[in-house]
Amino acid sequence: RDGDYALNDLAAVRATPFEVQRDFTGHTDRDIVSTTFLASHTGPNLVLSNAMGFVNWKTFDATDLDYSVMPLATRDNQEEAKQFSDEIRIASQPSFLIKLGGNRTFKWQAGTLFFTQNYDQTAVNTFAPFVVSEFVAVPVAQTSPQAALDDFGVGVYGQGTVSFGNRVDVSPGVRYDHQRRKANITTSFAPPIAPGTLVDETRSFDDVSPQVA
């Protein structure tokens, strides 16, 4: 529960560093819920672990958009995001090394990661009559933007380590990631003094990341 933005015209701040001008008292309200669940099991040869997390946050803020004592423009902004992730990993027991012959031993780990994120925003700039144009004699509400962003991702990875005695370790590994991102973003005016815009796109990304150490 916070006050208005600490924003102002830079020249005005330099002239009077501790003064701002407002005709509208804004505020910022934010709520956050976050939790993590961890579980693990150690067997004679394997270690299994799971890390799951969830975050939900939402915010609402309102501010004087013209930073003056004139009632010219205000902005209302609402945002909400939900994030969920889960990682499952299986690995050889640290005390259980696979013998490869001679002084060589082997240990390994593998896992998968899954996540989703959903983000929504609605921001409205409200302008007084004649601010947008000298020919517009009514208040104008500009929605910029109304947005819904949805992300989904999954990754899998594996890594092994060959130890040559106590002096040299060789660790090759590889990870594959897939991510899908969807965006629906609109801007509009009320009354419709200008055409709105729409972005409705879905794109996918894939990547393979090898490594050796």
What does this structure look like?
With 213 residues, this protein is mainly β. Helices cover 3% and strands 69% of the residues. Strands 1, 2, 3, 4, 5, 6, 7, 8 and 9 form a nine-stranded antiparallel beta sheet that branches. A hairpin with a 6-residue loop joins strand 8 (172-190) and strand 9. The longest helix has 6 residues, at 10-15. The chain starts with 9 loop residues before the first helix and ends with a strand. The mean pLDDT is 92.
Summarize the structure.
The longest helix has 6 residues, at 10-15. By secondary structure, this protein is mainly beta.
Would you spell out the secondary-structure blueprint of this structure?
Layout: H1 10-15, E1 27-42, E2 46-64, E3 73-92, E4 98-101, E5 104-127, E6 140-164, E7 168-170, E8 172-190, E9 197-212
Antiparallel strand pairs: 1-2, 2-3, 3-5, 4-5, 5-6, 6-7, 6-8, 8-9
Helix/sheet category: mainly beta
Q: Approximately how much beta-strand content do the residues carry?
A: over 45%
Question: In one word, what is the shape?
Answer: elongated
Q: Tell me the radius of gyration.
A: 27 Å
Oligomer: single chain
**For the residues shown, what is the average pLDDT?**
92
Distance between the termini: 48 Å
| E-strand count | 9
